[in-house]
């Protein structure tokens, strides 16, 4: 079985000062590529799981989102940082099993890529990200303000990756 890192998108890999409705709106944090490359080098599959309710609300289309994600993957690839797959939930008001805090996106990727969820991490900047990780039985890392249910709380993705790599070497995850 594989181990994985599930990343929320907005506020984790890119700035979310304004909505990301087109590729030009996507501003990666300066540490994003380096952090993802470290995870790749440690043998983790790296996935993005992102709520994109703006589709159901009509702010952008699934085609727009695909362009944003193609741009994201291509930009990271220039720095040899690989995203293995991206799952998104297009719902906002609909009752679904994919929108975080539900674990649907994580579980779908875990099944598709034969992921051992207990050896995996969910990293997010919102409590709903952490709740999804908990429901999927992953370890969780909350970025920004602390959330008591998270296994760890740190400032940014770079700090989260350091925790993952250090804990792996200490306990042989």
UniProtKB/TrEMBL annotation:
Q: What is its EC number?
A: 3.1.3.-
Task: Name the cofactor(s) required for activity, per the record.
Answer: Mg(2+); Zn(2+)
Primary subcellular site in the record, as a coarse category: cytoplasm
Site feature Stabilizes the phosphoryl group: at which residues?
A: 50, 100
Q: Give the GO biological process terms.
A: carbohydrate metabolic process
| Keyword Nuclease on entry | no
| Gene Ontology molecular function, alphabetical | metal ion binding; phosphatase activity
One Pfam family per UniProt:
Hydrolase_like
In terms of superkingdom, the source organism counts as Bacteria
Q: Can you say where in the cell this protein is located?
A: Cytoplasm
Positions marked as site (Contributes to substrate recognition): 99
Q: Which family does it belong to?
A: Belongs to the gmhB family.
The name this protein carries in UniProt is: D,D-heptose 1,7-bisphosphate phosphatase
């Amino acid at each position: 079985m594989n181990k994985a890192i599930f990343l929320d998108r907005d506020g984790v890999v890119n700035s979310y000062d304004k909505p990301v409705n087109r590729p030009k709106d996507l501003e990666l944090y300066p540490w994003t590529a380096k952090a993802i490359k470290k995870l790749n080098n440690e043998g983790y599959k790296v996935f993005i799981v992102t709520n994109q309710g703006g589709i159901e609300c009509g702010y952008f289309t699934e085609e727009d989102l695909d362009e944003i994600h193609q741009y994201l993957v291509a930009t990271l690839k220039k720095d040899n940082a690989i995203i293995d797959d991206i799952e998104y939930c297009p719902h906002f008001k609909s009752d679904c099993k994919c929108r975080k805090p539900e674990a649907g996106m994580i579980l779908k990727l875990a099944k598709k890529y034969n992921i051992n969820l207990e050896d995996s991490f969910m990293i997010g900047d919102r409590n709903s990200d952490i709740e999804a990780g908990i429901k999927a039985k992953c370890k969780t890392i909350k970025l920004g303000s602390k959330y008591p249910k998270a296994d760890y709380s740190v400032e940014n993705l770079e700090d989260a990756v350091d925790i993952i790599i250090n804990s792996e070497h200490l306990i042989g995850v």
